[in-house]
Specification:
Blueprint (H helix, E strand, L loop, with lengths): L4 H5 L10 E2 L10 H11 L11 H21 L6 E4 L2 H13 L7 E5 L8 H10 L2 E5 L10 H5 L6 E7 L11 H8 L6 E5 L11 H4 L3 E4 L10 E5 L1 H5 L24 H15 L9 H28 L4 E3 L9 E6 L4 H10 L2 E2 L2 E2 L4 H6 L7 E5 L6 H17 L2
The structure holds pyridoxal-5'-phosphate.
């Protein structure tokens, strides 16, 4: 089954404004169903969660529905789903809990490809614990990060490897199952996968990936602004975060600080339902419908992305950064004679939203010679149309032509 883009678009009120949104990697637009679910939760008569009043039970139900939805999205147990403020906070929280068990001389491995949310929390936790930080490099030309790049940084002292499922800057999708196999050859090494940019573009199965921890952010896949990190409950049981005395000491609750945003969890459950409905085929249970839909999303985005790359690479003066074989539909490019900011502003004037930045993947941007400014990023989403792509390509061509 394939994606019916016109039907998908009809669910997004924002798309009727005539803007072509290529900034999905920074956060997608929101379908009515998700906004309605958030509003409905807020006015439903909802209290702090508990079991006595109906209002308390509604909060309990929102939490349970949120966990089940993420479990169906990622293929993990619902009681291994932890909700956080953001993916950034998830990495900080997990790094602080894990680093209580690190010793001087232990090694923590981070990558040059990653968003800083999966770098700095580990670097800072390692420094506080006296552990050594080792850096996974990647190919500056192709933007490929291979198993060999990872293996080069592993040792018997490796405690944690943090690597992205997909680069939000260059689109690279490292071979995570192969990375996991290599990481797990080091005794006691855990793998933390940043799935923020992968989850919106591919079917995800955390067990198949071999990730010990997998983080993502619903606002990158039609949901509201919060984060989540999943792990096997038996792994969570081994960790003891700082927490308040009266708050639950159970798993996964002990990792969730303060009152959960019940309405956002209702929105996230609606976002997963929305994904399940995108192109479910004959499947009946939600996990299978999500997988079928995400396979269709991946195929659709691949085809449209090929048109985008063809269009951009045919323009004199356009430089495309990186050419990884397995990638998300995310292009990073510069236009000779113009700063990224100028391209971004020119496109914005045409109602084409494609920002320029390093997008917090600051190590990656510096590593490939783009400094802290980065370049222009155009990312596709399931609601991106062929017309959007043509408008982007035409807008870039207009500017590049004017430069000559
Ligand atoms: C790959 C990647 N990791 C992490 C993050 C941070 O996510 P959050 O805003 O939920 O902290 C982002 C946000 O852009 C991202 O793209």
């Amino acid at each position: 089954m394939s994606i019916d883009v016109a039907a998908v678009r009809s669910h997004f009120p924002a798309l009727s404004q005539g803007v072509a949104y290529f900034d999905g990697p920074g956060g997608t637009q929101t379908p009515t169903e998700v906004a309605d679910a958030i509003a409905a939760a807020m006015v439903s008569g909802i209290s702090n969660h508990g079991t006595v009043t109906a209002a308390e039970r509604r909060a309990e139900e929102a939490i349970a529905a949120g966990r089940t939805a993420i479990a169906d999205l990622l293929g993990c147990p619902a009681d291994g789903v932890v909700f956080t403020r953001s993916a950034t906070q998830a990495a900080y929280d997990v790094s602080r809990a894990l680093s209580k068990q690190w010793e001087r001389g232990d090694e923590v491995v981070v990558s040059r490809l990653d968003h800083d949310a999966n770098v700095r929390p580990w670097v800072q936790a390692a420094e506080a614990a006296g552990a050594t930080v080792r850096w996974i490099e990647f190919d500056r030309e192709t933007a490929e990060l291979t198993v060999e790049h990872v293996a080069a940084q592993l040792s018997v002292r490796t405690r944690l490897v943090a690597v992205t499922g997909a680069s939000n800057l260059l689109g690279t999708r490292p071979d995570i199952p192969a990375v996991a196999e290599t990481v797990h050859q080091a005794p006691g090494a855990l793998l933390y996968v940043d799935g923020v940019h992968l989850t919106p573009h591919a079917p995800v199965d955390v067990t198949d990936l071999g990730a010990d921890f997998y983080a993502c952010s619903p606002y990158k896949f039609f949901g509201p602004h919060h984060g989540t990190v999943v792990a096997d409950p038996t792994l969570w049981e081994r960790l003891h975060p700082d927490k308040l005395l009266p708050s639950a000491d159970t798993v996964p609750e002990r990792f969730e600080l303060g009152t959960l945003p019940y309405e956002l969890l209702a929105g996230t459950a609606a976002a997963v339902d929305f994904i399940a409905d995108l192109a479910p085929g004959d499947a009946t249970d939600r996990r299978q419908r999500v997988l079928a839909s995400m396979r269709a999303v991946e195929e659709h985005e691949e085809q449209l992305f090929a048109r985008l790359l063809d269009g951009l690479s045919a323009i004199d003066g356009v430089v495309l950064h990186g050419s990884p074989k397995r990638r998300t539909p995310t292009a990073l490019f510069s236009v000779t004679g113009h700063t990224g900011q100028q391209v971004y502003e020119h496109l914005a004037g045409l109602d084409v939203n494609a920002p320029a930045s390093s997008f917090y993947a600051i190590e990656a941007s510096r590593w490939i010679g783009l400094g802290d400014e980065g370049a222009v990023r155009a990312g596709l989403a399931p609601y991106t149309s062929a017309d959007d792509v043509e408008r982007l390509v035409a807008g870039v061509a207009e500017l590049a032509g004017a430069a000559r």
